[in-house]
Amino acid sequence: MSGPLADAARRLGCDPSDLGVDEAGRRSELAQKLARVGEWLAARESDALWLRRPENLAWIAGGGDLLVNREGPPVAEAIVTGDGLTVVTSRIEAARLAAEELPPGTQVETVAWHDPGARGRRVAGLLQGRAWCEDADADLTALRQPLLAVEQARLAAVAAVAGRTLTDAAVTLSPDLSEREVAAVLHGSLRRAGVDVPVALVAGAERFGHVRHPVPTEAPLGHVGLLVVCAKRFGLVASCSRIVAFGEAPESTLAALRRVWRVEAAMLDATRPGVATGDVLAAARRAYAGVEEANAWEDHHQGGPAGYLPREWLATPDEGRPLAVGMAVAWNPSLPWAKSEDTFLIGPDALRDLTRDERWPSEHVAGRPRPTVLVP
Fold first, then answer.
1. Is the dihedral of CA 351, 333, 308, 161 positive or negative?
2. The model's pTM
3. d(Cα 248, Cα 72) in Å, to the nearest integer?
């Protein structure tokens, strides 16, 4: 068995069949997703779904990668019915996508790369006479969630590598590196481990206490810093945050982190099948008030369900969509000088921490090991 997806599975330490990227697994996955689409369309009295967004294309393609420019639009579009998947792309990409990225049984329609309107015309022709929906104005999280068993296995593999690799990278850091240099270390380490890095944030000592989304700068890492990564493969994203210090962990950081853990514990305790996402945020708000930071939840989002986006949706006060078995969540409560974030999978009776690396020092909080400050 060969090809980029099978090779990716092996790179992550898995047998391709365990992650469903063998031929039989990919056919089975596509059939399950076509059935989901068929039911979704029937409820809307439609018979075709037009996909253009990268997260939806990765989902229907069973983790196939339809991007070339990593920050640009996909190189293909898809028409999905309850009976099959048709992908429209240029002559440049068609053979590669069919051989390496698309599920067996996908119909590939090829258009000229030099005609800017060719793809749109072919899509319009495929939709002609149909009642159709498009993902430009339809929320498809109900199709992507909860994750199939094989998607859960893929996310677990990606998350485990992210957690291990972040530890491997962190122990090589030094306080004289700039935030951008630290980000380069994170990028290089994670990509060598077999995952893409859509997000790598670094806050050194000058910025950690003040900036919640620390896009790396030339500022030095200094005596304490925050590392944040989102790791992606098979279209699925795992997120985690870690704190490093040099010499010793600052007591101010440890004190803030322990308050954040109290908030996180309340959120994790509330994370159960059937609970509305907004109710998890309500638990966080009560916990913030309990650590005398009642308004801190407004300073940064608190996370939400994860999958084909770092957050499929955010926990907001009025968010009523319920959690379910097979969903992943990545909560990220924070205060100045502290943040806690891992990716968890919701099971019938318990949560599974997918990004935990046992080598990272931890403290037990509400019965769970939570990563504390690493002093390399």
1. negative
2. 0.97
3. 42
* Cβ neighbours around 258 below 10 Å, total: 16
pLDDT in tens, the chain (376 residues): 678 999 999 999 999 999 999 999 999 999 999 999 999 999 999 999 999 999 999 999 999 999 999 989 999 999 999 889 999 999 999 999 999 999 999 999 999 999 999 999 999 999 999 999 999 989 999 999 999 999 999 999 999 999 999 999 999 999 999 999 999 999 999 999 999 999 999 999 999 999 999 999 999 999 999 999 999 999 999 999 999 999 999 999 999 999 999 999 999 999 999 999 999 999 999 999 999 999 999 999 999 999 999 999 999 999 999 999 999 999 999 999 999 999 999 999 999 999 999 999 999 999 999 999 999 9
Q: Are 351 and 256 in contact (CB under 8 A)?
A: no
The one-letter code for the residue type at 114 is H
Render 148-196 in DSSP notation, one character per residue: PHHHHHHHHHHHHHHHHHHHHHHTT--TTSBHHHHHHHHHHHHHHTT-E
H or E element in which residue 116 lies: none
Q: Report the Cα–Cα distance between both ends of the chain, in Å, rounded.
A: 40
Rounded alpha-carbon distances, angstroms, from residue 244 to 170, 171, 223: 7, 9, 8
> Which position has the token pair 């030339």?
218
Give how far the C-alpha of residue 155 lies from the chain's centroid of Cα atoms, to the nearest Å.
Answer: 8
Assign residue 75 a region (left: φ > 0; alpha: ψ between -120 and 50; beta: otherwise). Answer: alpha
Q: Kindly compute the dihedral angle of the four CA atoms of residues 107, 88, 42, 327, in this order, to the nearest 10 degrees.
A: 90
Tokens (6 digits) for 306: 């994860």
**How far is 338 from 367, CA to CA, in rounded Å?**
20
Measured between alpha carbons, how far is 65 from 54 in angstroms, rounded to an integer? 9
